[in-house]
Specification:
The complex is a heterotrimer of chains A (378), B (332) and C (291). Chain A is α/β, with parallel strands linked by helices and 378 residues long. Chain A has 12 helices and 15 strands. Chain A has 2 domains: 196 residues, Rossmann fold, CATH 3.40.50.2300; 125 residues, Response regulator (Rossmann fold, 3-Layer(aba) Sandwich), CATH 3.40.50. In chain A, 45% of the residues lie in helices and 19% in strands. The N and C termini of chain A lie far apart (60 Å). Chain B has a two-stranded antiparallel sheet with strand order 1-2. Chain B is globular, with a radius of gyration of 22 Å. Chain C is globular, with a radius of gyration of 19 Å. With 291 residues, chain C is mainly alpha-helical. The longest helix of chain C is centred in the first third of the chain and has 31 residues. Classes of the chains: A alpha/beta (378), B mainly alpha (332), C mainly alpha (291). The interface between A and C is large, with 35 and 39 residues. Chain B: It is found in: Cell membrane. Chain B: GO terms for molecular function: branched-chain amino acid transmembrane transporter activity.
Chain lengths: 378, 332, 291
């Protein structure tokens, strides 16, 4: 009898201890480009993360526990990113978030893999998920999945035989340019001009006059929003009328705002955008604008989604288990119907790449019009 | 008096070195990485200190020389060549480039080396970024191996830190020897009074050029350590801002002081770390701290110390004089 | 050929921006040996000051006036009193380093207290294009060009035709002698800082609609203006203007005819050549002072 009471007390004590261990906050670590050349990317990403965590904690947390995140600044420098990720991993976070620059992801992903901690990042370079890393996850389409769609559109719909490519000379722009160049080769599309531009460039007169001289059937533009707006103005000024095709960064609301009339007629493939014709995305945008007073770019969405990926995966496991996290997320499909925070249905494959609905849009009279919905593959 | 001061100084030196060897043994990986970074940046800043502090020339290309060293190490060691070969290539290249840049610039006017190196810094970045066939361009070079030193692998953070610390020790000794050699004395003569140095028959231009070329070569040495430290390099870290950061390190530590670069690099690497608790404000506070320091002491931190010590020395000397005087007066 | 003309016009428009910023460099250098590495950030900030005033509900014209006044106060008076004056007697270099730190601080402050995002900025020149001799030119570019020309004329008149101008020139050439002949040297130096602050505020007002208001937009601009000042001649206002225009044109021609990947290299190569063969800059006069 006494022993039974004792056993009961012991059990209670153990379970209380377990409950206590379960009750502390779940620690997440974010390393992002908060200063330096990538500060816009990093701050959007950070704000997206903070917004999602605030929402989840306001609703009682994840499995009853609060989420807690530390943000570290990579200064947009891979060397610093490595140091900060090392520091973050030394504190054994549940999941590592970031960085956004592909170079910084490349230098940090072996560290996270070695520590056995899942890393959810913002990089879009094709090669990131092709090295067999079992712990790395994207939040958006890699260039290897978005560029073929653009190339197919240029070939099938526009019937272009020659294309001028304008790209920004950093890892984002060069990555996209290299993938689409390969795709064009498959369709026997000639590259009439291959024009690299600088981040922050203000004057596109020379670049556009090169395009004019090359007289292509279409122009593929892969720049950041601000530079996209400037080149669109210049293209209009030099009266270039062939179709202008791009990606998320050519047809966003921000570009329309900055370029005005000149944005009309621009078209492109859009993976993640706050302009998507999806109610949940529109609601997200409203919440974001309310909190931060500006319209986020796709990096804000990525940060937000990263947190809801963690939520869905953890709820699927039924407990906070850093070891099994990566395994569980591989092959997982998250439905927006059951987890509204994920905004659109998404599936993760074995490499950590994503499959999600995409859109082909065109700017018509200052508004983004969806011309075609590219369905999720499976 | 001076004998005890000397013992104190030696004791302090031994204590610091012992601390640098012993304390990191139970540091975590992050702490070791930061300390290794400090050692590497100190070497680069020491090179710049030679150019700036001893020869009085501003170089805005030290970051580019670090880049040249890093690319030499990355390209050659990923091809299976040993790091020591890369070191040789980096030193020779940086020295030669320094000579070629400095030769015409110093021919004309004093501050033109700054302008020429400013241009070179950006040109080097463009070459790193655009010559894909050699540098893999903006994608960078990954999986840079860490070397085996005397049969020891330095893959783990602690051995690699000792490798960096050992390299820093060797460079420091070489520098110590250099500034005490006739050459080094010529450098100092140059800084103190160029006109007088010229009249004493020192070929000022050649010595200035030599100081700049050696300083640049040390940038290359730092680069060959930087590549295996991060194990991945791309062109972005080697743009103009690294050169400016290194310049800031030298000035903040105290240019022309032997230990200036050690302190300057420590502040540049560690101060942002200590200010990290202020979150988004840390770089702002860092900038304000640098400005306040320079307003208070334009000769950097060691300048404050120097001022304090010389004041004490004057005080001590005048006290001695007073004693001697009173003795003379009381003497019958 | 028509292509070349287009490039020249576009290059002049960009070059005029560099020129406006470069003028301030040379003014500060001439009167007080200040190399201001934060000059690009000086152009970035006034736009944010104006935006902040507008966010408080003020109309655009009021924001412009207040923005310019705040710039005079912060970037003119404040810069001189708080940073330049205490450091000037210690030589050129510590001050130059302090301005680098200032640049970092300004960028971070704007990012932290305003936003890391680019914001659009209203234009005082109506957006749109005009056709001149069959070439389509944007009104904004014309506005910048016109202002740059007005500044050169205004500054030249001020320096050469007024007694204040003569006193400023005397201060720039030899402060000791100027003081002896009764020039209020300190006041003249302060005046150049105020002129610089006014110029950067004007530049900010004109180019932010094109460059957008962003914490990092000063980086490219500051460096280009610095190069322009060296190329044109560090000690002459008209040298800075010529250098700015030249760099703008060369940059455009390089992108069109050399290589877009190496476009930034061509002005730098020009810089090196000029230092070798004409070290005082295109329009500069040889300097007796060594730094």
């Amino acid at each position: 009898m006494r022993s039974r009471i004792f056993a009961g007390l012991l059990l209670a004590a153990v379970s209380a201890g377990a409950a206590f261990a379960q009750g502390g906050p779940i620690k997440l670590a974010d390393v992002a480009e908060l200063s330096g050349g990538g500060a816009t990317v990093g701050n959007n990403w950070k704000n997206g993360i903070d917004l999602a965590i605030e929402e989840i904690n306001a609703k009682g947390g994840l499995l009853g526990r609060k989420l807690e995140v530390t943000h570290a600044d990579s200064q947009s420098n891979p060397g610093v990113a490595r140091a900060q990720v090392q520091k973050a991993l030394d504190n054994e976070p549940y999941v590592l978030l970031g960085p956004g620059y592909s170079g910084s992801v490349k230098v940090t992903s072996p560290l996270a893999a070695e520590a056995g901690i899942a890393q959810i990042m913002g990089g879009e370079a094709a090669e990131l998920t092709q090295g067999g890393n079992k712990f790395l996850f994207r939040t958006s389409f890699g260039q290897q999945s978005s560029m073929p769609k653009v190339a197919k559109y240029i070939h099938d719909e526009l019937k272009a035989k020659s294309v001028a490519i304008v790209w920004v000379n950093n890892d984002f722009g060069k990555g996209g340019r290299d993938v689409i160049t390969k795709e064009f080769a498959k369709y026997n599309i000639k590259i009439a001009a291959d024009i690299s531009t600088e981040a922050g460039q203000a004057d596109f007169a020379a670049d556009v006059s090169k395009i004019k001289a090359a007289a292509p059937d279409a122009v593929f533009i892969y720049l950041n929003e601000e530079e996209s707006a400037r080149i669109l103005k210049e293209l209009k000024r030099q009266a270039i009328t062939v179709p202008l095709v791009g990606e998320t960064t050519l047809v966003g609301q921000k570009v329309v705002e900055l370029a005005g009339d000149a944005a009309n007629g621009a078209r492109g493939h859009v993976g993640l955008t706050t302009d998507a014709p999806v109610d949940l995305v529109k609601a997200f945008r409203e919440k974001f604008v309310k909190k931060y007073n500006y319209v986020p770019d796709h990096n804000g969405l990525k940060g937000y989604l990263a947190i809801y990926m963690i939520k869905a995966t953890t709820e699927k496991m039924g407990k906070v288990d850093a070891k099994r996290f990566a395994d569980t997320l591989h092959g997982l499909t998250i439905k927006a119907a059951s987890e509204p925070g994920i905004l659109m249905d998404v599936t993760f494959d074995e490499k950590g790449d994503i499959d999600r609905q995409g859109f082909l849009v065109e700017i018509v009279e200052g508004k983004q019009v969806v011309k075609q919905v590219l369905p999720k593959l499976n | 008096m001076s004998a005890t001061a000397k013992y104190w100084r030696i004791a302090l030196g031994v204590a610091v070195i012992a601390a640098l060897i012993i304390a990191p043994m139970n540091f975590n990986r992050y702490g070791l990485y930061i300390l290794s970074q400090w050692a590497v940046m100190t070497i680069a800043a020491m090179g710049l200190n030679l150019t700036l502090g001893y020869a009085g020339q501003v170089s805005l290309a030290q970051g580019a020389f670090v880049g040249i060293g890093a690319y030499a190490a990355a390209i050659m060691t990923t091809q299976g060549m040993p790091l020591i070969a890369a070191l040789g290539v980096a030193v020779v290249m940086c020295f030669a480039i320094g000579w070629i840049l400095g030769y015409p610039a110093l021919r004309v006017q004093h501050h033109y080396l700054a302008f020429v190196t400013l241009a070179f810094s950006t040109l080097a970045f463009l070459v790193f970024r655009n010559e894909d066939w050699l540098t893999k361009g903006i994608y960078g070079i990954s999986n840079i191996p860490r070397p085996n030193v005397l049969g020891f692998a330095t893959n783990r953070p602690l051995p690699f830190y000792y490798f960096c610390l050992g390299s820093l020790g060797i460079v420091s000794l070489a520098m110590w020897w250099l500034i005490r050699s006739p050459w080094g004395r010529a450098f100092v003569a140059l800084r103190e009074n160029p006109v007088r140095a010229l009249s004493l028959g020192i070929d000022t231009r050649r010595y200035t050029l030599m100081a700049f070329a050696i300083g640049s070569a040390l940038g290359g040495v730092a680069g060959t350590l930087y590549a295996p430290l991060t194990q991945y390099i791309d062109p972005v870290p080697f743009n103009l801002s690294l050169s400016l950061d290194l310049l800031m390190m030298v000035i903040v530590g105290g240019s022309g002081f032997f230990f200036g670069p050690f302190l300057g690099a420590m502040i540049a690497v560690l101060l942002p770390e200590w200010l990290r608790f202020t979150e988004g404000y840390y770089l702002m506070l860092y900038a304000v701290a640098v400005m306040l320091l320079l307003i208070y002491s334009p000769t950097g931190i060691l300048g404050i110390l120097d001022r304090y010590l010389s004041e004490r020395r004057t005080k001590a000397a005048s006290a001695l004089r007073a004693v001697a005087k009173s003795r003379l007066e009381t003497a019958p | 050929m028509s292509n070349l003309l287009d490039l020249l016009v576009a290059g002049l428009a960009t070059g005029a921006i560099y020129a406006l910023v470069a003028v301030g460099f040379t003014l500060l250098w001439q009167t007080s040996q200040t190399i201001n590495f934060a000059q690009g950030e000086f152009v970035m900030l006034p736009a944010f000051l104006m935006l902040a005033v507008m966010h408080a509900g003020a109309p655009f014209w009021l924001a412009v006036i207040l923005g310019i006044l705040l710039s005079l106060l912060l970037l003119g008076l404040g810069f001189k009193l708080l940073l330049v004056d205490p450091m000037l007697r210690h030589g050129v270099l510590p001050l130059a380093i302090a301005t680098m730190a200032l640049a970092i601080g300004m960028k971070e402050a704007v990012k932290q207290f305003f936003s890391a995002e680019a914001s659009p900025f209203p234009s005082i020149v109506p957006a749109g294009d005009v056709s001149i001799l069959g070439r389509v030119v944007s009104l904004q570019s014309l506005g910048v060009l016109a202002l740059a020309i007005a500044v050169v004329i205004g500054l030249t008149l001020l320096l050469n035709r007024t007694s204040i101008g003569h006193q400023m020139q005397a201060t720039a050439q030899n402060p000791t002698v100027a003081r002896i002949i009764g020039v209020p040297v300190e006041r003249m130096i302060l005046l150049t800082f105020l002129i610089n602050a006014f110029l950067v505020a004007l530049a900010s007002l004109l180019i932010t609609p094109i460059y957008l208001a962003k914490f990092s937009s000063g980086e490219v601009l500051g460096q280009a203006a610095f190069i322009a000042a060296i190329v044109g001649g560090f000690n002459q206002v008209r040298g800075a203007i010529a250098g700015g225009l030249l760099i703008g044109v060369v940059d455009n021609l390089a992108a069109a005819y050399v290589s877009t990947q190496y476009r930034a290299a061509v002005p730098l190569a020009l810089l090196i050549i000029i230092i070798l063969f004409r070290p005082q800059g295109l329009l500069g006069r040889p300097e007796e002072r060594t730094v």
